[in-house]
Amino acid sequence: MQHHIQLLLNQNLRRDLTLNAALHYTKGDGYYDQYKTGRTLSEYELTPFVDADGQTVKKSDLIRLKNNDNDFGGGMFNLRWTRQALALTAGGAANWHRGNHFGQIKWVRNYIGPIDPLQEYYRNTGRKFDSNAFVRADYDINRYLSAYADVQYRHIHYTIRGISDNFDWNTDGMARLDVHRDWNFFNPKLGLTFNRANHRAYASWSVAHKEPTRDNFTDSDPTHYPTAERMFDYELGYFYNCRLFSLGANLYFMDYHNQLVATGQLSDTGNAISVNVPDSYRAGIEIQGALRPVAWFDWQINATLSHNRIRNFVEVIYEDEWTNPIEIDCGDTPIAFSPEAIVHNSFNFRYRGFEATVASRFVSAQYMNNARSAEARLGSYFVNDLSLGYTLDRLPQVRSLRFGLAVYNFLNRKYCNNGYAGAGYTLGADGRPEIYRYAGYAAQATTNVMATVTLTL
After folding, report:
1. 2-381+408-443: in CATH 3.50.50.60
2. With bands split at pLDDT 50, 70 and 90, how would you rate the model's confidence at 51?
3. Residue 60, burial from CB neighbour count under 10 angstroms (0-12, 13-18, 19+)
4. Secondary structure of 25-55 in HEC code, one letter for each residue
5. What is the pLDDT of residue 343?
6. pTM, whole model, 2 decimals?
7. CB–CB of 198/166 below 8 Å?
């Protein structure tokens, strides 16, 4: 649940000077239950107990309740000055976030001994202060050609303190968190745009940085804390638009340094962690087009063809998925969950109050790990949806009444679009590691239907 408070200001200070400013605050909290089977009681600050048969019980089924309590607030402003061919924009923002995360035990099967109704077993608090300042210039070089330059400075102060929800078997207690990080990012952008009649072309270059997320710290340990990612983005595009049709393409190359990816490496508490890899990239082309031959019909299509690779990827595999790690040099490998072809197509019909759309999407095969293992491969899929609607807009005291019917996956295809993969090894008779791999797949719904009624007053 969230509550939002916002205060917005838009002011013309002069004919050529405009001020926009905002203050905001969000209060949010939430929780979810998890049923866990065969858990070691000491992981949840519970002591083993002796059952009615005199046996010491160290593991049991339980329900844990995970909670978060968040505050998020801040402000932003920008000043825009325009004079003939030049526009200058300067601004900044500062945001503060506090997140309390804690867990409680709601129920333990057949537990004997003292236990609070909602016994707490971990609590930690994260605080993040994120501020930035920027200056942007837009300049019309001539009637058809314009350029822009943008420079941003961003500062982040981040702390997490308390007890995590991970049990550290080395210390026989819950892992402690004491994270203190500061980042200072410099993000420039440059671009050039050509506009003439139905033609538009552009080229751009930019630098972006991304700090690690909370999970990158809480699932890791002090010896594996990651650093920030950096990306150089190069783009070149051309679009043509007229009454009958439009067609365009965008070429991109995203060059990553220290991208965070899963290598199979585990933290001291046994959690999979993301590790900075020195060199990776995404390169491809985005194509979009539309055909409008008559007023009651149009055809729209867009596609992305890409090549996404980690250079010199090294996979880490553990004996019985826990101890004695070994490394496997995989060379250049595809980035996980990065299909190389995605196509969306739609045929749209309209006649008076009636509308219909047949939409299709194709996603090529992809891997659920970064090691290109066959066991972690998600197959390609092609799914079609049908959407029908009819709107009545001449009713008394009612702006419109719409009846809708959507039939998703109407060809009843069976497919999976997500999942997980893992690996481990055992020692063979000759003492050499024998690697085993496994995967789980998230099956998606076959044909399903949704009907809607929308009333607009």
Report:
1. no
2. confident
3. buried
4. EEEEEEEEEEEEEEEEHHHHCCCCEECCCCC
5. 98
6. 0.89
7. no
Distance CA 42, CA 47 (A): 6
Query: Alpha-carbon dihedral of residues 197, 203, 209, 210, nearest 10 degrees?
Result: 50
Give me Rg for the CA atoms of the chain.
28
Return d(Cα 185, Cα 325) in angstroms, integer: 35
Query: Residue 316 above 90 pLDDT?
Result: yes
Spatial separation of the C-alpha atoms in residues 244 and 304, rounded to whole Å: 23
Residue ranges covered by each domain of the chain: 2-381+408-443
CB 105 within 8 A of CB 62: yes
- Is the Cβ–Cβ distance between 184 and 153 less than 8 Å? yes
β-pair type (245-266, 272-294): antiparallel
Direct distance between the N- and C-terminal alpha carbons of the chain, in angstroms, rounded to an integer: 27
CA angle, 408 then 411 then 417, to 5°: 65
Q: Indicate the residue type of 89.
A: T
What's the Cα-to-Cα distance from 53 to each of 49, 50, 192, 305, 434, rounded to whole Å? 11, 8, 79, 64, 41
Contact 371, 434 (CB under 8 A): no
Distance CA 153, CA 130 (A): 11
Distance CA 406, CA 335 (A): 34
Cβ 360 vs Cβ 383: under 8 Å:
yes
DSSP secondary structure of 312-324 = EEEEEEEETTTEE
For residues 157 and 129, the answer to whether their CB atoms sit within 8 Å is yes
> Across the strands, what pairs with 203?
192, 236
Mean pLDDT of 368-389: 96
Mean pLDDT computed over 8-26: 95
